[in-house]
Amino acid sequence: MVAIVTLAVAALASLFMAWAIGAGSSGSTPFAPAVGANAISVMRAGFVVGLLGLAGAFLQGANVTEAVGSELVVGGSLSPTAAIVALATAAALVAVGVFAGYPIATAFTVTGAVVGSGLALGLGPAWPKYVEIASLWLLTPFIGGGIAFATAKLLRNERVPESVAVPALAFLVGILLANIEFVILGPGSTGRSIASAVTRAVVGEAATGTPVLAGTAVATLAFAGFFAGLLRLDLNRDEAAGQRHFLLALGGLVAFSAGGSQVGLALGPLIPLLEQGNVDIALPVLLFAGGIGLLAGSWTGAPRMIKALSQDYSSLGPRRSIAALIPSFAIAQSAVFFGVPVSFNEIIVSAIIGSGYAAGGAGVSRQKMLYTVLAWLGSLALALGVSFGGFLLVDALL
């Protein structure tokens, strides 16, 4: 009976965490540039991002979920009490950020809370994983901001017509999209990419070597060319409408990627609890439940953060918004592929700032940037400390 009650409390804490993430990073960041460019309203953005986040959680959430659940500490797994303390600490801090209007980095908060509880429990630090995570976190502002800066400069270059530059960017996005793995396209927990699935359908499952590589390359180029060609036709009909459509498509891809990454931050600590309690719940079912939590958060709490990101950081137009979303999509999918918890607030804010500086820094709030960085660092340290102390306190009382 006690075990059932403990698991129920942990599940509620996980659901609240999923809500907080949906209201914060996964719900607010993907469409913030599109809202800033007046391509979609705040309320409609919150509605759409919730649905796409649910889809991403279900189809791509396994890697990060397993990493958060088993790779942040070594020497054992989190106890039910440690998991509850970690989830409650992280969810509370993220919720405070949502209601205060500041983008608390969810990945920083959850990672700090899980590590804090694990160390207080007597488990060891997973240094190789920390190096991997820290490397991504440190490189994200430079890579995302740098790519956004270069892309925005390209789109502002009068010598390069937009009818050429925008479809070329769409071609690159198409290459990435063709090689993203979807669980429904193949066997196993990771599935297959569109290019790989098409290739296997043509050359057969048993084929290896050159036919597979050549087929994948041809399928990738064909898919990317089709994607770019459609956009070129759209731009020829109405250039402004074509830009908006591309911007909304990018926002949708980032929203999908956000669901695939962020759901693991809420569900990861539950994995060892289910294993210890011999509770047989299929991972896809768990991912869908977590996606529902993201959906609820996006629909009820995301609009406030969407407004904060779209209006407070930079006055965005369609070009700078496109420039911000392309690296955001690429970095997000890289994190999903490697199973690294990543902060979508860090990704999108860095890209927004990079695209803003391409226009001379117009509209970029340096004060807001400083507060945001301090909030990120503070959330990591605070989550680790509160979770560590909270577990010791609860454990002593019990």
TrEMBL record:
The keyword Membrane applies. It is found in: Membrane. Keywords: Membrane, Phosphate transport, Transmembrane, Transmembrane helix, Transport. GO terms for biological process: phosphate ion transmembrane transport. The chain crosses the membrane at residues 81-100, 107-127, 133-152, 164-185, 212-233, 245-269, 281-302, 322-341, 347-364, 371-394. Pfam families: PHO4. Potential transporter for phosphate. This is Phosphate transporter. It comes from Halosegnis longus. The lineage of its organism: Archaea, Methanobacteriati, Methanobacteriota, Stenosarchaea group, Halobacteria.
